[in-house]
Amino acid sequence: MLRLIHWLFLICVGLGVRAGHYPRAPSACLYPRNHGGCYTSYAPYWYYHFQSRMCRKTWNRCPRNPNNFRTKKACRKTCISSVPEYRACWQPLDKGVDCHHCRRTHGCGEYRFYYDRRRRYCSRFYYYGCGGNSNNFRSRRACMCRCVHYKKWLKCKFWSKNQQP
Fold first, then answer.
1. Which of 63, 82, 101 is where one domain is finished?
2. Which of 24, 44, 139, 145 lies 20 to 30 Å from 66, alpha-carbon distance?
3. Residue 123, helix vs strand vs coil
4. Residue span of the signal peptide, if any (predicted)?
């Protein structure tokens, strides 16, 4: 009976992922936190919490559960870094460079938004106009849609890098 409930859970999560336009995380990351044969560990383990899209610490070791990682880095690499849509959100703030040498092609600086991992929020910054990285969004809404779990409220759709709202 427990296996049936487990499979129904995975099917429901899988359907929810497709219906909500979320990118697919590896299947190990979709398992519930404490599924199967858990015991208390003296060292912390990490699991991926799908709703918050974060790796969280636990003191329960569940060897039969693939959503169970020895380090936070391993959890992030498997469940976050492997999903291309999230990679931008995990990059540090990069304001770019002064665009005096590329005014003709890009125009100069403007205010943009980046995802601040510590605050778990999209913050405003002044983008100098050239360079930088992909943690750089034209609007707070675009940043929130990509990096924060607000898709249901904002009615977000995934877009390509050049089609940000």
1. 82
2. 145
3. strand
4. 1-19
CA count, 13 A, side-chain hemisphere, 32:
15
What are the tokens at 8? Answer: 């129904």
Long-range contacts of 1-6 (CB under 8 A, 24+ apart): 6/32, 6/35
Q: Are 79 and 29 in contact (CB under 8 A)?
A: yes
Considering the domain architecture, whether residues 7 and 77 belong to the same structural domain is answered as yes
* pTM metric for this prediction: 0.49
Residue 143's Cβ-count burial label (10 Å; 0-12, 13-18, 19+) is: buried
CATH number for the domain including 7?
A: 4.10.410.10
Residue given tokens 């690499």 in the structure block: 77
Cα–Cα nearest to 45, from 77, 29, 67, 26: 67
79-131, pLDDT tens digit by residue? 876 666 667 887 889 988 876 665 555 557 889 999 998 888 899 999 988 88
